[in-house]
Each structure stands twice: as C-alpha cells, then as structure tokens.
Amino acid sequence: MSFIARAVLVPLAISLALAARQQPTFELVWRPKADDLLAYKMRADIDSTPERFSFTVNVKNHVLKIKPNGDYDVETVIKNGHVLHGTHDDPIPDDDKPTVDTYNARGEKIASSEEKDPSGDANPGFDALDAVTDHLSPKDPVSIGGTWSTIIKANAKLKQEAAKVTYTLVSKVKENAFQTLRIEFKYRETDLEPPTTAEGYILVNQDDFSLVRFEALLKGPRFIDDPDFPKGDVTISVIRD
Fold it and tell me: Is 66 inside any structural domain?
C-alpha cells in the first residue's frame, strides 16, 4: 500500500468502525405504566368476491396492573364497529365484555381471559397478526439496519400457530406527533399447509416503544368456520388515535 493510500484509507477505516460502534441501539420493548391508556382505529379490508368486505372498529387498551416481575395486564375494549360491503354499512354491537391479556416483561402474551371463556370466538386470520406484535422484541438491542427472527411455538390456549417472523429495523420516521422507528416484518406459518403468510411494517414510538401504527397484508388466512364470513386476503391497518 502506498504512503498516500495508507494515509487516506487507514483513518477512513478507523472512522467508519467508530461510527458503527457509536450508532444507537434500541431495545424495542414497551415498558408500560399502570393506567396507561392507548386508543387505536383499526380497519381490515377482505378481498372477497363478489363483494369486498371492510371492518372498522375503535380499540382502547388500558394497562391495569404492573407486577413486581415486570408482567402486566392489559384490558382491551372494542367499540363502534362497522361492516362495510357494497352500499351497506352495518353497525356491530359493542363488546360489553372486555378482554384482559397478560404479557411478560418482554411484551409476549402469556395468558388471556379468552382462555377461560370459550364463547369468545377467535378468528385465526387475525390472531396471526397479534402474534407479530406480541413477539416483536429482539433478544439484544438492535441498530438501524439490524435484522432478527423469532420462532413462535404453537399455543392452542393463546390461539397461536407455529410460525417464524423476521424483522428488520429500517429507519426513523415522523408519524403525526410521534418520532417513530419503522420495523418491517415477514411472517410465515411453519406447521400448516398451505401456510398463512403476512408482511408489512410496524411503527413504534421512539421514546417508549409503544405501538403507533401497524400495516400488513395477510395472505391465505383461515377464518372462522362460518359459510357467511367473507374469505380472501386481508389488508389491515391499525393507527394510534
């Protein structure tokens, strides 16, 4: 290596190495506080035939309790639901029985009041998307450009299928009043054929890693066993209210 090349390349390499080490990392674990309230608007569009169906609801999450080990309980209430199809706009009766889910300190769902209530009819197509956010947190903090994967074990009580999710922390993004981190994901079931797949992105608040936005395209979902329920791929959007 010539003297000039050495004089330029060596400091440059050192500078790049230092810049890489100084790049901030993010834990991506929500640390809620008791009585935190988060409200969202959710829309799901099912590409069914002969009519496209859309569902819209308001979702309110209330953190009920933080336990000494970091586990926490979240109450979810769904209100103001509508089913849109053709020229029809049909209201959905409000759910008068809130769901209470328990999460561990890493944000993974470990219990749900739905386990004890068989009348709560789950919908496998949408349960797959819950799993994507429930298993978001990496084992170690990541920097922009970092990629990690999570293996989800089948859990009948929590209505989860075995699957693999790959996440990539892509960038920082301004979303309304929030400074957020954009995380792109790809989800694929591993035990069922044909598998349900999904891909999309998640925006989390850079300050506390709470959910700000979720966008996904779900392909090949299995829905409740009801001949009247529309079938097809689903585009879903959840936006902080």
Answer: yes
CA-closest candidate to residue 151, choices 171, 170, 167: 167
Q: How many CB atoms lie within 10 A of CB 216?
A: 22
Q: What is the pLDDT of residues 191-203, one digit of tens each?
A: 999 999 999 999 9
Q: Structure pTM? A: 0.86
> Is 1 contained in some domain?
no
Which tokens hold the place of 163?
């699957």
Domain that holds residue 61: 28-240
Over residues 134-162, the mean pLDDT reads: 93
Q: Is the distance from CB of 43 to CB of 56 less than 8 angstroms?
A: yes
DSSP secondary structure code for residue 193 in this structure? S
The pLDDT value recorded for residue 184 is 98
Closest CA to 234 of 65, 95, 81, 46: 46
pLDDT higher than threshold 60 for residue 217: yes
Domain assignment of residue 106, yes or no: yes
